[in-house]
Design a protein that fits this description.
The chain contains nine helices and ten strands. The chain is of the alpha/beta class and 260 residues long. The chain has a domain of 143 residues: P-loop containing nucleotide triphosphate hydrolases (Rossmann fold, 3-Layer(aba) Sandwich). The longest helix has 14 residues. Bound molecules: adenosine-5'-triphosphate (ATP). Adenosine-5'-triphosphate (ATP) binds next to helix 1. Pfam families: ABC_tran (PF00005).
Length: 260
């Protein structure tokens, strides 16, 4: 729980499916207040790496550490309690409830969990205030009394992010956050994630294919290829590196995506 540890770290993290090594000894540390994009060609192991961090998959070997604590053997729910929040997967919206009710439910559930020492004793008033704060953070406060069913798709995405924030994660994971979104919805989600970056206690990880999204959000890019970490650095440097351009991504620097 101290600042001497990176918020999240993977050490020699490996998973094999039969003879295939999908994530191959990936060691990487993620600091508070940083946003890291994970890129690589199709099948490189990006989603599998995410699944190993969030607990959807169990590593063959290696470790995932949160604030120095080994998460091996912990379920997805236990990892969420500890502070790993994965967007658009953990949260289920209740369509007939209002926006505010949805967020309050998550805040309440979070407060009941034993690991959140500061909010175990949270009063009803504190929980309500927390929900209002989160709704303001994602700019949904004016729609707080609308039912979820009445929201646009973009606003539902905002609500999903609000519910993720209400879980108070230290690590926020987004798997292709703009995939399947309409042209007008993309800036909404990008704005939201950019807003989340202002909280320097949080660390954001995103798997992303789109170069413009990466450029606008990431402070750092790590590249996976055949499950191994092959490049790590500032976006401009990584995108321009010959190893990424030619050997691994097979793309010219100015093309739309950095993979596949
Ligand atoms: N449950 C599984 N069983 C067997 N093989 C798997 C399983 N999950 C992933 N793989 C394999 O592991 C490799 C990495 O897959 P993964 O989905 O992590 O790649 P990715 O980088 O996320 O690709 P994409 O960009 O296409 O989503 C692939 O070869 C995939 O077929």
């Amino acid at each position: 729980m101290t600042s001497e540890h990176p918020v999240l770290e993977t050490r020699d993290l490996t998973i094999r499916f039969g003879g295939h090594v999908a994530v191959d000894a990936v060691s990487c540390a993620f600091q508070r207040g940083t946003t890291t994009a994970i890129v690589g060609p199709n099948g490189a192991g990006k989603t599998t790496y995410f699944n190993l961090i969030s607990g959807q998959l169990t590593a063959t070997s290696g470790k995932v550490l949160l604030n120095g604590e080994d998460l091996s053997g912990l379920s997805v729910a236990a990892r969420t309690d500890r502070g790993i929040g994965r967007a658009f997967q953990l949260t289920n919206l209740f369509p007939s409830l209002t926006v505010r009710e949805n967020v309050r439910l998550v805040a309440q559930a979070r407060a009941r969990r034993g690991y959140d020492l500061f909010s175990v004793a949270s009063s009803h008033v504190e929980l309500i205030e927390r929900a209002e704060h989160v709704l303001a953070e994602v700019r949904l406060i004016e729609k707080a009394d609308q039912t979820v069913a009445a929201l646009s798709h973009g606003d539902q995405r905002k609500l999903e992010v609000a519910m993720l924030i209400a879980l108070q994660p230290q690590v926020l994971m987004f798997d292709e956050p703009t995939a399947g979104m309409s042209v007008d919805e993309v800036p909404v989600v990008l704005d939201l994630i950019a807003g989340l970056k202002r909280d320097t206690d949080r660390s954001i990880l995103l798997v992303e294919h789109k170069m413009d999204v990466i450029r606008s959000l990431a402070d750092r890019i790590i590249v996976l290829h055949n499950g191994a970490l092959v490049a790590d650095g500032e976006p401009a440097e990584v995108i321009a590196s010959p190893i990424v351009q030619q050997a691994y991504l097979g793309r010219e620097p100015e093309e739309e995506t950095v993979d596949a």
